Amino acid sequence: MTVRPLIAGNWKMNGLADESSAELKALADLLANADTVACDVLICPPATLIYQMAQISKDSVLQIGGQDCHANVSGAHTGDTSAAMLKDAGATYAIVGHSERRTDHGETNAVVKAKAEAAIAAGLIAIVCVGETLEQRESGETLAVITDQVKNSLPVGATAENTVIAYEPVWAIGTGKTPTPEDVAEVHAHMRKDLAGLMSDADGVRLLYGGSVKGSNAAELMALDNVNGALVGGASLKASDFWPIVETGLK
Ligand code: PGA
Question: Has this prediction a pTM greater than 0.85?
């Protein structure tokens, strides 16, 4: 089955309007000049910039997403953003369960699952993040941890259209370290197998790798079986750094 890759950038808590607008415009221009765009390309800016970035990219294939959403549609949740609000601002995707959310905000699998369900209910595509810590990898628990996270964070009603899974080893995020290609392939094959027991169109689900993806390692990672794209942090902030990664999905 051919799966259309997704190359996604997560700007995290970085970006003010002027500089971010210029970077997004530069990325949209590069995409406009590409011969073929055989992958989906997404930028998830901070919530304050979603509307503006969606306006800038409205005539581009470039899509905009949120980095998190609340599980509820509305209500007394100071500081939170609902999936419907993200959609209203122009987002088409929402990342949920990023390890920084799981760690900084104590998000459990149950919370992540509820957020993914809220994203889908609002008409967004949910990118559900999973990944083991260094301690878990070193004690040989990686595959068990991934199975637990995939099973218990997967939204009810997940399909290949509305759900993406991102494997991001916690120890590889922002560290410059990546697992070996063999280790990435092993986890991705394992996730595919887990998903096959949970949904009927598991073969079509985009499985992203994330954690220190950059121009110099993207092609090798993207060529692996069951790797259908990337979730990129630091190297997505500048169009010139992100573009070589996007190019690995264009072909
Ligand atoms: P990084 O972040 O590319 O800076 O390692 C990846 C992520 O957290 O999504």
Answer: yes
